Fold this protein.
Amino acid sequence: MNYKMKQKTIAINTIFIIASLLSFSASASNYPEVMQQNIEKMYQAKTAQELSAISGTFYRVSQKETDEWLPLYYAAYSLVRITFFSKDRDEIDKNLDVAQGYVDKLYKVKSQESEVHVLQALLYSMRISGPMSGMKYSTLSNEALDKAEALNKDNPRIYYCRGNNVFHTPSMFGGGKEKAKPLFEKALTLYDSKPSEISFWPSWDKRHTQQMLEKCN
């Protein structure tokens, strides 16, 4: 290889390295923006189809940003939210199965994170479709919430989920509005007093907590 060709090769390689570094930098700096935009879309979604597509986006982000756990968290949570917009039990269970797979992966990398256990608790509660499944999954949900509380007792979503579980449990089995009310009140206090660690940290479901508290009153 002559001198000119060698210099040209070095120049091309240098340009390629610089371009790669710039591309990586842009991707890294773009991560918060991508997350925030898709979280907003998730909360605005009104159909199961929209939420399924958004979950897919979060999953693809998780494959790219392998050091981050929140993309996979939101991939699972988007599928759990489908429960609020679908009446098709088969569709709900299918999406919850996929969400459970994501949660299982989260446990491998973030087992000491309270939010992961709360998400598991929420997922379990969405499995309830009748008295029999209610006995099984309410127990599992409460066990997951116990783990979440042991890791972070100031997580407001713990008490929101506990309140929901108690609210929908018949009074003869220790549930009902009166017992759920203090749990929703505690959740609301923590929502108002504890700022999020980052802009797209899990923040559901303050609005629904307020609605449930009104039902208790």
Q: What stands out?
A: The chain has two domains: 33-111, 112-217. Confidence is low (pLDDT under 50) at residues 8-28. Residues 33-111 form one domain.
